[in-house]
Amino acid sequence: MGVSQLSVIFFAVGALACCAATSNHDVLPSFSSFIQRYGRAYSANSEEYSLRQKIYESRLLNVHHQNSQPGRLWDAAVNHFTDRTEDELLQLRGLRPMRTSNKAPGAVRAHKSSGQFLSQVRSTVLPDEISWAHLNAVKADNNQGGCGSCWAVATATMLGANAEISGVNRTFSAQELVNCVPNPHNCGGSGGCKGSTTELAMNWVVDQGLETESSTPYKGSDDTCGKTGTSLMSVDDHKYSAEQLEEMIAVGVHAVKQQHSTFPTFQGWERLPENEYQPLVSAVANRGPVAVSVGADGWSLYGKGVFDGCSKDSTIDHAVVLIGYGTDKESSQKYFIIKNSWGNSWGEDGTIRLLRHQQDDAYCGTDYSPADGTACDGGPSTVPVCGMCGILYDAVVPHFTKA
Predict the structure, then answer these.
(1) Interior/surface letters 334-373, b for 16+ CB within 10 angstroms, e for the rest
(2) What is the spatial distance between Cα 220 and Cα 129, in angstroms, rounded to a whole number?
(3) Quick one: which of 301, 297, 296 has its CA closest to 56?
(4) Residue 53 backbone phi and psi in degrees, to 5
(5) CA distance linking residue 263 with residue 160, whole number of Å
(6) How many Å apart are CA 389 and CA 317, to the nearest integer?
């Protein structure tokens, strides 16, 4: 069976999976019970059945190994990814965030400097814990399926959550972002289901606005863009230069040029400083959910607990939404709360808790494969990443006014 056919099955199963990941790690399900639970349609004695069974049995060993570790902080689980190939899991992540130059943020299209905003949030006393999990936008059962659209789903989820906080109950279309966001410099992939970035998505929103989910519902596949125009981010005229790209993705505040009638409370967005802890926790505590980039290799096994399974040298390859932070009562370990886009049957009701280090340099390493996971065309050969799974590396938050 071809990759495209597998992707169709993958999307359908992921979207329909209603059974929670197994919580009894002592008795793991057989392959036959697994395919019944998750509605797989593999023909017995076929080549694909044999392939999937071998993958599944190998992953069971990984689950058992993790759950047999004394003093572990997290449990692995059988879920709708347990029989997926590494290529299919890689497609799920579908992000290569952008590395900016060391230029000062003077090129940022801003109504105030990034430094002014950061000095304000850094002086704020932060709560010991915060969670935006109660928001409708966060509770939604978002499943990107077999499309590498994590960047689009994360952007739409973040916008919906922050709009809700500002008093506007409105959804945002991830599918429009998949269909429309131009990516001539191959940042995060080649665009659409083949990957892009939150920064480019937010430039589209600033420039073009964004329809609701009901007007352009999610399909989990590439489609034709319904918007045309002559502006920088339009699909008709998107051959922007490397210098323009640098401005579009720079650290700092990017203000809207004109208010969009469909959501006038939207003021713009901000890219937070790379690999800094305080601006990130300040943003999620004082503003709302933040889109972050992470290295998600190994996340497919996650069941529950505080995940600490990323090495310091993470390859950043997935976009998710930071919705809070806290401290685990049993282990006393501090954690971030992340809303993922793999369906609410995955993890802890669609979320994962990542181990939280409170110093910028407490858990830092290097992404040695930015060409595979972190670069636009002509990007650097390595980039520094900090925090569990590189969570401090790249973060974006929108600015809304109260309705």
Answers:
(1) bbbbbbbbbbbbbbbebbbbbbbbeebeebbbebebbeeb
(2) 34
(3) 301
(4) -65, -40
(5) 11
(6) 10
- 178, 233, 249, 337 from 100: Cα distances, Å: 23, 19, 7, 26
pLDDT of residue 375: 60
CATH 3.40.50.10860 fits 3-93, yes or no: no
Query: In the chain, what are the domain boundaries?
Result: 3-93, 105-400
At 86-135, the pLDDT tens digits run: 988 987 776 555 555 444 333 334 433 344 444 444 546 899 999 999 99
Single-letter amino acid code for the residue at 240: Y
How far is residue 114's CA from residue 91's CA, in Å, rounded to a whole number? 34
Contact 97, 197 (CB under 8 A): yes
Matching residue, tokens 């920088």? 232
What amino acid is encoded at 345 in this protein? S
Query: Which residues have CB under 8 Å from 176's CB, separation 6+?
Result: 210, 211, 216, 225, 226, 227
Structure tokens that stand for 97 in this block: 């965030």
Helix (H, G, I), strand (E, B) or coil at 282: helix
Fold assignment, 105-400: Cathepsin B; Chain A (3.90.70)
Overall size of the chain counted in residues: 403
Report, as residue numbers or ranges, the catalytic residues: 150, 318, 340
Structural element, H or E, at residue 324? strand 318-327
Per-residue confidence at 336, pLDDT binned at 50, 70, 90? very high
Burial 192-219 (b: 16+ CB within 10 A, else e): bbbbbbbbbbbbbbbbbbbbbbeebebb
